[in-house]
Specification:
Blueprint (H helix, E strand, L loop, with lengths): L7 H22 L7 H25 L3 H45 L1 E3 L6 E3 L1
Antiparallel strand pairs: 1-2
Helix pairs in contact: 2-3
């Protein structure tokens, strides 16, 4: 793969540094993302009780009724938090995606990132 000379380690080091630099540049060059935090929270709010019911079933099969009821209480609390968070976040996400995101996307499409110095320039 690498040259057979005594310089192999040096080549390896150079390659890994280049890879790191490209990864950083790729991260800087990534387009802005739309937000779906509210939807994710609502999904979690519905998933958690299902998981808790499955967990409760397993615990009861093993005669651990106390652990089972604790799991349900914890699930109700976590689920309520997720649903409330989801209800609050979903309209905010919608606003961000509809109003803020297009402006960020427009900026990103007109930004050139310099590979040499990492500078970002609008055109
Ligand atoms: Zn530059």
């Amino acid at each position: 793969m690498w040259s057979n000379g005594g310089n192999g380690g040096g080549h390896l080091k150079t390659v890994s540094m280049t890879t790191h630099r490209q990864t950083t540049a790729a991260k800087n060059a990534a387009p802005p993302k739309k937000r779906f935090n509210g939807i994710a929270l609502l999904g979690l709010g519905f998933m958690v009780p299902l998981l808790a019911i499955a967990f409760r079933f397993v615990m009861q099969m093993n005669g651990l009724a106390d652990t089972a009821s604790f799991a349900l209480i914890a699930a109700v609390v976590v689920s309520a938090g997720c649903l409330i968070g989801g209800i609050v976040m979903t309209p905010r996400d919608h606003f961000f995606n509809r109003v803020t995101y297009p402006a960020l996307r427009q900026d990103w499409e007109h930004t050139w990132a310099c590979n040499r110095c990492g500078g970002r320039f609008q055109f």
